[in-house]
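We both want to read discrete structure tokens more fluently, so let's practise on a single case. Would you write everything just below, so we can both look at the same thing?
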Amino acid sequence: MNFRSTSPRTIGLWVATAIATILLSIAPSTLPANANIVRTAEIAQKIYTELPEIPLENQYFNQKLKKIDPNNTLINRILHYHAFTKGRSADMRLDWKLTLADYLGANDIMDPATYPSHDVLNKNPLDNDRAAVNTLTRSMRDQLIDRLIQFTQKS
């Protein structure tokens, strides 16, 4: 191919195609870590059954459903934040500890604009979710991490 006679747009398309090909070849190796969390509502329900002292934080009005969404819970949002916002592994204890450390303000800064459900609920639940996680004792957080790992393992 003679790049001198090729338009910049065509070269840009070739570069974009090459980058996309590289990214797609890399993506499958990173996919299994996040693919574990596909049924967040089901996992959240299991955790709440075993750890009923974990706050639900499900009192928010869902603008798309036009009603309070009882399934949009703290655990559901933690699962989404962990897997989809941060891209962390579902089966690594350290990754879950990092996620809870984010909520406790001891690790990464949480961006309200990317927090799960910020765009569908009448109020961004981030501040209340962080406050709810702060009410958990260290023992409760450890139990929560144990259940998160247990219920997000590959079947």
About this structure: Confidence is low (pLDDT under 50) at residues 23-37. Residues 8-35 form the longest helix (28 residues). The CA atoms of residues 93 and 146 lie 8 Å apart. The beta strands are 61-62, 67-68.
